[in-house]
Amino acid sequence: MYERLSVEEREQLLSLVTIEQRDFLENKVKRGRRTIFENAMRDEKITAIKSVDTALEEEEKNVVDWIITDFIDFGLGNLGGQCACGRRLRYQFTVGHQNTGKTIQYGKDHLSTFLNIDVKDIDGVINELDKSDHELDELLWKIKHDEYGHEYYEKTPDKTVVSKKIVKHIEVNIPLLDRQINRLKKYFEEQMEAILEEKRKNQREIELEKRQQENERIEKLLREMKQIEDLLEAERKAHRDAEFKREQQQNEYHEKLLREKKKQDAARVEAFKEQVGYGAKFEDIVFSLVLNGVHSAVEISWIMVNNFDVDKRISISTMGRPYIYFDVLVALRKQVDNGNLIMDESSDIMDCVFYMNPYQDELKNNESQEQLQQEFSLF
To answer: How far apart, in whole angstroms, are the C-alpha atoms of residue 97 and residue 27?
Structure first.
């Protein structure tokens, strides 16, 4: 429901909120990130610092004096960050020494070397940071669409059980997260049930003294209970109906997108064939597809199988990719080696993603200083 925002989009939305709201949102993110960074540095596997691309003084070699101070995700296909080794990055970490004040920027690979831990542990940190950023995106989306959810707090009978974090959201006029709203709904249902149970208990005690009189009260109580149950059931039904309608709309929307995409793909392939010529080489066709906006190696493989005279066989493995997938990778990696393309850091064994290299001149200057971090043999 809540789209992932870029750094620029997040900053644009933050510029529209009040000073008090912005202060809360930024401090909440900072506190959350600081907790994630501290948890990562407290991990017992981090026992020593290994100097990478930057010389360390003797007093800077103690692991307990280093902390992760910042992290930036520049977004899919964007290499706006830079490692201490000079390499362009999507994910950029900053580590700082608490005594000398020295700071170093690293990508996840060199950060794992610096902290002497497996790169999978760094991926875990990125995942935790992504969850924190997603909550910020949720709050910004709700502010933009004026969906604060404070009414769930107002209708809670006993507000003393509500956490201070939820109350703080109310005080500074910040929307409630979905998980906080769900918690308030649970409080409401539990307290309503407790109220009903208390009424039943009182009713039983009174019946012992004045049964005839209390029969009328019991009937009244039952009517009240029925009204409450009808109200709750109506709310649940409305929620189910809304969910069903939302799913129907999403399915219709996805089917429409799929139909439009098929038409666009067919038109694009025909235009593409005319562009590259019917006698073009396999490598030229693959490279031209990236230039025309197809970034996935798997998607390029399917386009080649469905529209060009190539090997039509499909792998019987669980991935079910065309046999020519690895031929496509070889052709695209050759363009990476030539500096024409970059392979995004999100690439993995499932698929590889390629983009035009916006830093061709810079990479040519750096080719003699480093080797590409990602090995083709992984895929």
So the answer is: 22
Under DSSP, is residue 356 helix (H, G, I), strand (E, B) or coil? strand
pLDDT of amino acid 355: 95
Residue ranges of the chain whose pLDDT lies below 70: 1-3, 29-48, 53, 126-133, 278, 361-379
pTM of the shown model: 0.38
DSSP letter for each residue of 177-236 = PHHHHHHHHHHHHHHHHHHHHHHHHHHHHHHHH-HHHHHHHHHHHHHHHHHHHHHHHHHH
Q: What is the pLDDT of residue 290?
A: 92
| Length of the chain in terms of residues written | 379
**Residues 192, 228: contact at Cβ < 8 Å?**
yes
Count of other CB atoms within 10 angstroms of residue 59:
10
Q: What is the pLDDT of residue 317?
A: 80
Name the region of 140 (left: φ>0; alpha: ψ -120 to 50; beta: rest): alpha
Strands (E) located in 234-348: 341-343
The predicted pLDDT at position 378 comes to 44
Q: What is the pLDDT of residue 377?
A: 43
Which residue shows structure tokens 């043999």?
377
CB 240 within 8 A of CB 247: no
pLDDT at 372: 45
Residue 318 CA, distance from chain mean position: 26
Residue 118's pLDDT is what? 77
H/E stretch holding 59: none
Distance of CA 378 to the CA centre of its chain: 24
Which residues, 6 or more positions from 41, have their beta carbon under 8 angstroms from its beta carbon? 66, 67, 68
Place of tokens 């750096």: 366
Instruction: State residue 71 phi and psi, 5-degree precision.
Output: -150, 135
